[in-house]
Amino acid sequence: MNRRAILRGIGGALTLPLLEARAASKPAPIRFLVVGNPFGMHPEHFFPTQFGTEFTLPTTLRSLDWLKDRLSILSHTDHGMNNGHGREISFLNGVLPENSQAFPEKNISLDQLLARHSSGSVRFPSVHAALESGIRMSWTSNGVDIKPFTDPQKLFDHLFLNLTGEEKSARRELLGRNGSILDTVGDQLARLKQRVGRGDLERLDQYATAVRELEGSFADRTDWIDRDKPKFDISGHYTGNGATVENHYNAIFDMVAYAFQTDLTRVATVAFPSQLGYTDLDGVTRGYHACTHNGKKPEVIAELVAIESFQIAHLSQCLKKLDAIQEPGSDGTMLDHTIVLFGSGMGYGGTHSNRNLPILVAGGGFKHVGHVDTRSGSGTNMPLCNLFVTLQQRFGIERESFNTSTGSFDLRHA
Prior knowledge:
The chain is α/β, with parallel strands linked by helices and 414 residues long. The chain contains 10 helices and 9 strands.
């Protein structure tokens, strides 16, 4: 075997060490992992043909067979949008930026709403990774999309590399200076709000919300400066020149899993971007986007399914790691305390369909329902935001609506 194959095997087989036991009286935290792509999934290879808990997993989902009783697959749910590219950015919020002013939460994405809830308890409110930017899954409350780390080494440095003494001093000075600036802006903002009309007042309120979040972020970062980060051994992962997509995603998923385990963060997103090349996978000769426009040719569809199966297989591998870790202070595993959402804001790239989104929920301690047809009695697709209401409640946020929701999805906590 060559060096690349050996290193790839080591990375894929990496076993994460267990956390030191938490106090038995401290409940295990709930975490949230989103894995998404921009083009949806080939429907015939994603959705089972049977509904209910007795179903056979199709080709794309076959690597999740070991988890079959702890996952739910939702058919016929979407955001009610017309077909076409550009609407997939609504995956985690249900609205487009230009229409967001009509909704209480604007276009903040689900992951950021949950990150805001756990901010202060962890070093990083959320962590975002991909191999290329562009999928635009995560949005702040003031409509800014969050850029993911696209280099596994930089993600490692961010999560696990401690600052030097000199860097800590410089960071304290920077945060203190930024805090003073925000104090000044706050005074100016209060005076300005007394002189503007209703429309401008709404814009200023949005700005004030962003300022408050930034102030909280500065305070949290100051508290964490002198605390050492956990150690993570990245030497088993090959991420240098010539590394494959598989090498890189092995590293990304392992770092995210360890960040959950060490409570660095409780919210993470992993994206498979649109232009990513998968030609180092067996049988794949075309780019990801090109495979979605397959003209129903069996040989091209086979390449698309290979790419989508790769995505699910790496999700499955990550979930196996989480399921192998006993959650301190509970009867369950870390996976039982991690809500896992896989999906896309596009149903199927081959037709640019934004209906019938491929949605899968796993873990999280839910009483899972297998494959569900979510349509109403009249045949109307369920708003995906109904599911998001349920996921928020499981995360500990007591609320009854989120953007385009009309209710919640019945996915009870076991």
